[in-house]
Amino acid sequence: MSRVEDRGTARNRIVPVEFEAHAAEDGTVVMAGDKIVGTMGSSAGRLGLAMLRVDRVADAIAAGVPLLAGGIPMTLRKGAVADLLKGADAK
Questions:
Q1: Residue 71 pLDDT greater than 90, yes or no
Q2: Residue 1 is inside which H or E element, if any?
């Protein structure tokens, strides 16, 4: 596949995320099982922003694999899941 064909699809997106207790620090790697799926960005309290790889997160959600940032469980904020899965379908 040529680079020209891939130009219209972004693999990474900034996604709003939520933690149960406190957010992971900036720069913390986000994992889904044994795969790196992104990096944490800024956060405040239990909320944060993460740069996530759309296709890998969509696969993890479909397989029921939890997302962890520095060992701390995180979830995508309401509405972010639909947007993320829509982006994964564009591949």
A1: yes
A2: none
